[in-house]
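Input record, target 12 of the design panel.
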């Protein structure tokens, strides 16, 4: 995973911006244009709003490109681990996230990430917006029967492990909710394999096609 970190600081807060993780969704610009303005140089001015307003705007960044440094009051993970299926785009994950390699070694711990599922990101497992360049198509919804839904789950403060299988899918372990813009919301504790080669016939889940297409990642 590549990083290109830029820092913006005032007396009360430091905001970092990783341009390798930004997919220009403009949530920050919409939420707090006085601070985040791509027409300005620098494009982030932390003097132009309160610390709480800036933290709130940073929390809306879906990819984790924006972070703030506050060791006394760090960002708390969302109460529930959620995986939102982005139509024709990445999986947006929020919560207490740990990404591991196939050997179980930690690669990244975070509260917000956007995960590549078109198979073409240069910054796997993170999305780098390549899905737009290749006109990646994937449905907004998902087959709920693949998840073994639970009705009384409590995904509170349960770590979500995302394990990257070599040349294969990402395994999701823990308790989580899968959401779609089609108003689906399914709580599950089932270990499930999500496609990251972009070729599965049952996206967002893996159906084994990665072997046929020779996916490398
Ligand atoms: S919200 Fe995050 S991903 Fe979206 S434009 Fe701002 S920094 Fe980039
Ligand atoms: S990773 Fe795409 S089908 Fe398995």
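The sequence produced for target 12 reads:
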């Amino acid at each position: 995973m590549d990083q290109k970190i830029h820092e913006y600081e005032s007396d009360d807060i430091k905001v970092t911006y990783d341009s390798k993780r930004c997919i220009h969704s403009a949530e920050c610009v919409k939420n707090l244009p006085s601070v985040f303005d791509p027409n300005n140089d620098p494009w982030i001015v932390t003097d132009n709003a309160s610390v709480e307003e800036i933290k709130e705007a940073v929390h809306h960044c879906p990819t984790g490109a924006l972070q703030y440094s506050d060791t006394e009051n760090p960002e708390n993970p969302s109460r529930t681990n959620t995986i939102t299926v982005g139509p024709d785009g990445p999986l947006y994950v929020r919560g207490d996230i740990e990404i591991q390699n196939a050997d179980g070694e930690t690669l990244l711990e975070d509260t917000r990430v956007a995960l590549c599922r078109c198979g073409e990101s240069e910054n796997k497992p993170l999305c780098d917006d390549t899905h737009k360049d290749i006109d990646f198509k994937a449905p907004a919804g998902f087959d709920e029967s693949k998840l073994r839904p639970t009705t009384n789950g409590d995904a509170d403060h349960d770590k979500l492990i995302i394990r990257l299988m070599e040349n294969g899918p990402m395994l999701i372990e823990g308790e989580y909710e899968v959401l779609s813009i089609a108003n689906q919301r399914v709580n599950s504790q089932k270990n499930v394999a999500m496609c990251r080669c972009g070729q599965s016939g049952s996206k967002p889940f893996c159906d084994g096609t990665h072997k046929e297409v020779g996916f490398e990642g």
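The first helix runs from residue 27 to 31.
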